[in-house]
Amino acid sequence: MALLAFAGRTNRKQSALTSNPSRPWIVRRSTAVILLAAFASAALVLSPDLSSVRASSLFGVIRSPGDAAFVASHRGDRKVAPENTLPAFESAIRAGARFIETDVQLTSDGIPVLMHDRTVDRTTNGTGRVSDLELSVLERLDAGSWFSPEFAGTRIPTLEQLLSRLGELAATAQPVRALIELKGYWSAEEAGIVTAMIQQFELSGLVVLMSFDPVTLDNARIADESIPRAILIKELPSDPVGYAELYGAIAIITSADAIAADRWAVDRIHRSGMAVLVYTLNSKSSWNQAISLGVDGIITDRPSPLMNWMADR
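RE: above sequence
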């Protein structure tokens, strides 16, 4: 029953997408092509050399224990403004964050929006699952009053709005990079909506797609192999390098506890040419532990305090 329900939702999305040919980011693939590509992708492994080049171009040189990591602002600066809204991202950018992290889901009419939860209940004055609501409905919701009266009337952003802003910053001396999590399962066609939009704004070198779902990550590779990918995982497998290479990832993003439990994990991952990021660390003790382990990036709800702390060190 669950599979039938999902198939129905996917078909509704495909119908909505194909009925609007004016959108340049819509990617159409036949079912046969997607299935063939899925089988073929299982045999592909990203070479360590290519992984190293791409990881370094996005994250900088691979760190050693004690080196300062880059800071990624989790859902924007969510201590200052409502999470996953444009004010939250602007606040993080003004504070000097050069990486932002966000979550993307599709509306019922196939438009990518920034929202962490499956439902809009917690962070808006509305109710219901994101995947069951059209963009026109989401655009009318108040996504700021729950945080503070100051942000009353703040709207749920579309991915297009965020990428447009990143495109503006890309032309400056300090471009901002984005870690974009595809929430839940995405088909290759659905992932193609996001990858085509990234290409539209010429941001393929500034955006990393990530997911806890390895099939979704592989589908993102099918959609556009040129967009870098990182694999999210709560606990490291016995062979984290092989696991990440299987899906063509340039980085592994995990918890600090998972890294600390395997003292040689960072070294093995680095020697493969991949980067290591940890989430979501908000205390000085956790920051210090991560730095001592030699991770390359820290995802945090407190970007300004973390950047100040690293500057003081």
